[in-house]
Every structure is written in C-alpha cells, then in structure tokens.
Design brief:
Elements (H helix, E strand, L loop, with lengths): L1 H11 L3 E7 L3 H4 L8 H11 L6 E10 L3 E9 L11 H14 L3 E6 L5 E9 L4 E6 L3 H12 L4 E7 L2 H8 L6 E5 L7 H6 L6 E6 L5 H6 L4 E4 L4 H19 L22
Parallel strand pairs: 1-2, 6-7, 6-8, 8-9, 9-10
Antiparallel strand pairs: 2-3, 3-5, 4-5
C-alpha cells in the first residue's frame, strides 16, 4: 500500500493534496491482513481526484483509541465521482472483514457531505481487561497472578508489592482493572484508590472484613475476603468484564485456549 501511495504522489505531483498519518511504523508495528485497506485507498484516488478542481486524499492509519485500531480514509468528491452503486471490491472487503473479525470490527461510510467521502474502519481489540495486582504479601500476590493467568479476558500488566510503585506506574500507564490489598504499609489500598485521578474498576482483596463498607464507598466492583477461592475470584472478574462490555458496547471475545478457563458468571436473568 505504501508503494501504491508513493506511485500516486509521483503521478499527481502537487495537483492533489495527499497526506498519510500514523502513530506507528506501518511495516513493523501494524498487524493487519495483507491488502485489506488497498481497496479503500484505490477508490479514494479513483473517485477523489479531479483535474479541474482542487482535490485531496487524507489517510490516517493505525490510530489506537484504546479499544481498537482506527483507520480513516477520506477524499474530495466531485460530480463525476459519485457512483450510484457499490463496487464489487468493497463488497468483497466487507465479506473478508466478516470472515476474519466476525463482530469485532465496525465499517462506516459517510457520504453525507457533498464535498467529502469518508471511510472509517475500526478493528476492535479483543475485549481483554488490562489489570494490575497490588499486595504486600508475596504469597498472596503470587496467588493473584496465578488466578489472573487462568482468566482468558484478563491481561496482567504488572504486579506490585506496594501501592506507591503502582501509583508511579499508573502516572504513565492506563489500566482497566486493579486488584488491590487494603492493609499495606506506607500507603494502604483505600487511600491509594482515593488518590487516583483516573480511577479504573477496583476489586479489593483483603483479610479484614471491616474495610468492606469503605471499599464500596469508592464504587469498588467487588470485595474479596482472604482466603478466597478461584471460584470467588472468577465471579468477581466476571462482574468487571460485564461492566466493561456494557460501558464499551462490545461483545465478549470468543477464545479457544484450553489452558485457560473462562469464568462462570451467574445468570441474572429473571
């Protein structure tokens, strides 16, 4: 695709405003099936260029909005470039997207502006929750790490033995879910959560039941009382996953990995 765009630059020189933007190295960091976007790019040049009027082709590729890779291709529109029917190339791309990504993508075509035609493709990330674990007890932290590894929609970003290091980590990184102990030296779990500027979902893990009320005042997803079983952990993780799906309007990712077990969530239907 890069070669094709460079060829078009040579062909049209300065007659057409051609811009390509990406936050990542396209060849090294953007993993999409070969030639998936080329139909959109070819159509942009085919229908968006006029030799009599100013024209543009704007391509933005690989922008990660936190939930998916966003690709936006827009071009100028002219009277001659308004096809009345959908081309076979576009139909084939739609079939290919459905085959590869199933429900984990969105494709929208906006032709409401008479001067601009825009194609937006978003390939959704699998609905995995990025999480961190915090516990000053090494054995408890190791158990948390083991439980997280068994849940197919949890991705452990990092584990910490104190909340201060976790606080520093979150200053530059995002997390969807935090498993945090409460009774810790220097900075306890409740004060740690209260101080967060961007507060993700929280699940408290502690041996002290008297902190439960304080924990739920901070809108915690759940409160796991030590020692807790994998079944208890699984139910709590399931609550977080359901809330994540609700907030982002995504369907659960379907994974086939026999080494990880999907947590069983309770049926709350009447």
């Amino acid at each position: 695709m890069q070669n094709y765009i460079e060829l078009m630059r040579i062909r049209y020189t300065d007659d057409v405003n051609i811009s390509v933007e990406s936050t990542r190295n396209l060849a090294a960091q953007l993993a999409i099936p070969p030639l998936l976007l080329i139909v959109f790019v070819e159509n942009a040049f085919k229908h968006g260029v006029s030799y009599n009027h100013p024209s543009f082709i704007h391509i933005r590729i690989g922008y990660d909005d936190g939930h998916g890779d966003r690709h936006v291709i827009s071009n100028s529109r002219h009277e001659k470039s308004r096809p009345g029917t959908t081309g076979i190339g576009l139909e084939n791309v739609k079939k290919r997207l459905a085959l590869i990504y199933q429900d984990n993508y969105t494709l929208s075509i906006d032709d409401s502006d008479p001067a601009v035609y825009t194609v937006k493709l978003v390939i959704l990330h699998d609905a995995m929750l990025k999480c961190i674990a915090i516990d000053d007890e090494p054995l408890a932290l190791r158990q948390l790490q083991g439980y997280i590894a068994k849940i197919n929609f949890l991705k452990l970003e990092k584990a910490f033995t104190n909340a201060i290091e976790a606080q520093q980590f979150l200053a530059g990184k995002n997390a969807d879910l935090i498993f945090v102990d409460i009774n810790m030296p220097d900075l306890n779990g409740v004060d740690f959560v209260r101080a967060l500027i961007r507060r993700p979902m929280i699940i408290f893990t502690t041996a002290y039941s008297e902190y439960a009320v304080e924990g739920f005042k901070l809108d915690a997803i759940d409160y796991l009382l030590k020692p807790f079983s994998f079944a208890d952990f699984s139910r709590s993780a399931g609550k977080a996953h359901s809330l994540y799906e609700l907030r982002h309007n995504q369907r659960p990712a379907h994974r086939k990995n026999p080494r990880r077990r999907c947590p069983k969530t309770r049926n709350t239907s009447p």
